[in-house]
Amino acid sequence: MSNNKIKPSLQNPLAEKHQVDFNIPGEIAGKAGAYEEVMREGYELIERPVKSVSVAQIEKQHFKKRMTVWERINFLTSHEPNILFQNWGKNLDGASLVTGILNINGRDVAVYGHDFTVRAGSIDATNGQKLARLMYMAGEKGIPLIGMNDSAGAFVPAGVGGLDGYAEAFTALRKISGVIPTIMCMFGFNAGGGSYLPRQGSFVIQPEDTFFGLTGPGVVKSVLGEDISPEDLGGPKVHAASGVTDLTVSDEMAALRTAIRLLSYIPDNNHSMAPFQETSDPLDRKTWEINTLLKKAFNSPTGFNTPFDVSIVIQQICDHGDYFEIQPTRSREAITAFGRLGGNVVGFVANNSAVSSGQIDCDSALKIARFVRFCNIYNIPLIFMEDTTGFLPGREQEARGIVQAGRSMLDSIVDVRTPRILLILRNAFGGAYASYNNYPTGADLVLALPTTRLAVMGPAGKEFVYKDELRKLRGSIKARIAQGVAERIKAGLDGADAKKDAEKEAAEWLRREEAALNLRYEKELMNPREGLALGSISSLVMPTDLRKVLGENLNFFLRHYKPSAWQGVQREFH
């Protein structure tokens, strides 16, 4: 009995295979000649990469819960694909890679995909060259690129030709980087060049049960003697944590759906705007939920130190609450996302106090830097939301290079040429404020909520502002304890107990006095008043008016912004 699952089909399995007729419709059939023979040979050559693959190979793909490259292409578009560069030799040289132009939701998109059923999708000199040719065409025509990577790497029997093929593709992808956006889907098991190439792209999407990396587990074991699974070596969890992968999904279909959705937020090239989408969500819709969130947080026992999830604020501002987060599982203390405001695509960069008080560490700084740089290159306006107590201090962060990571974030913000707005939600302290899209670093507009606490330092700043008063308070403790001891002994308390009780009372008194100074510091210096007086903040906005104020200002800036390629000097570090 067969173990294969029988699937229902409308096709008759006993029907004869369809024969292509090369006669002109209505023409009286005659004896076939040289013309018909040439037509038949040409048709067979066109169909060869598909027809030469055995059913067993396709079933292997399906058994591993993977689609063939042709199935992936059909999933991306309902239109007939325009397959270009059909240059495959008699040994199917070049057939392991399919390249073409697809119509995806009315937009021309260049697409390539490895055909794992042919030579395990490996690269030889022929298909390396045609991949490079597709990339150059996409760059010249200004259309985005989607890559469907499912490759064992260079084709070993091709010798150095396979390496040359990868080198050509590397070079082409680097040259179109910053000219057109690229989305890379990782399918199957990719190693070596199959990993280097897609990570040159703008975004990488990786489903579960897939691998990509420098080498596979077998090589790691033979070189290092280390047993490790593909999942632990180069699976989606590993790459999502490091930032190598931008988005992780459940399976191939989810990856392709995600690629299509991401495409809707990004422009065709570096001299155009992202697609505008009409919305029925009124721009002046009141954002009452933001008001409720802040009220519950700040009226709680922990008051202004209460963390809250900034993604709720982003959701309430965006059209119909829809936004698309990039690297959603990595460095959650910072959120980077695409959304729409009044139909216009906007990039959101927000500190998230719900995680580590929103402190910026090495990973979140680099996450922000990369996202900001992408938006800057591709004419996407930015809204920054600030609520951070600063950069994360400590030995580990210094050892990992927090100074350089923070500098990368600052550089990306200073370089921004697209419209950009800063909204200070709550905390904006020290160097984090100074490097987070304020007026001196080039912001077009700085807004703040009444909950804003803008200061050089957080509550610890009282040590400098009220230094003399604190010194006097702390210096009086000794005399206060001595007086307390004397009073207790006079009342008949034992000497040791008297001292212990007096010390406790003095400590509690000092805590109350320091708490009062904390409150005084917050009221006098940790508020938006000084920022408004100095012009560091343009105006205050009520939480319920955030969508309207941000949307109207964004529309104003976009009316006076002309999309163009970035013509400035490219700085060394980014």
UniProtKB/TrEMBL annotation:
Pfam families: Carboxyl_trans
Domain CoA carboxyltransferase N-terminal, residue spans: 35-278
Domain (CoA carboxyltransferase C-terminal) ranges: 289-560
Biological source species: Pelovirga terrestris
Superkingdom assignment: Bacteria
GO molecular function: propionyl-CoA carboxylase activity
Protein name: Acetyl-CoA carboxylase carboxyltransferase subunit
